[in-house]
Amino acid sequence: MAHIDNAALLPAPAFAAAVAALPLVSLDWVLTNPDGQLLLGQRLNAPARGWWFTPGGRIRKNEALAHALQRVACDELGLAPQGGITLNNSSVGNATLVTATGATGGGS
Fold first, then answer.
1. How does pLDDT run across 11-70, given as a tens digit for each residue?
2. Are 48 and 56 in contact (CB under 8 A)?
3. What is the pTM assigned to this prediction?
4. Which fold is adopted by the domain 6-106?
5. pLDDT at 108
6. Helix then strand then coil, % of the chain, to nearest 5
7. 54-70 in b/e burial notation, b at 16+ Cβ within 10 A?
């Protein structure tokens, strides 16, 4: 995974204040197996504790999208994208859909 300078991130207390006061940008991985089954995880934290969701996480301030995708894949799924992640943009109506591709191997 590419190195990110932690000094560029908000300190934990400032991030907690921002979480309470501002809308946040997050990402989700939508993973299926060859049979078309979708991977879901049960949330452990509020506000949706106990609900089933696709795995994901927040994008940190000053964090590149590709890095956030790699970090979440590693932290939430134990996957280590090999050779990085390629981002692909496409238009869907008035929105932009960003998809990511990359081979994965087991995490450490």
1. 889 888 988 888 778 888 888 888 989 889 998 887 789 999 988 888 887 888 888 888
2. no
3. 0.62
4. Nucleoside Triphosphate Pyrophosphohydrolase (3.90.79)
5. 44
6. 25, 35, 40
7. ebbbebbeebeebbbbb
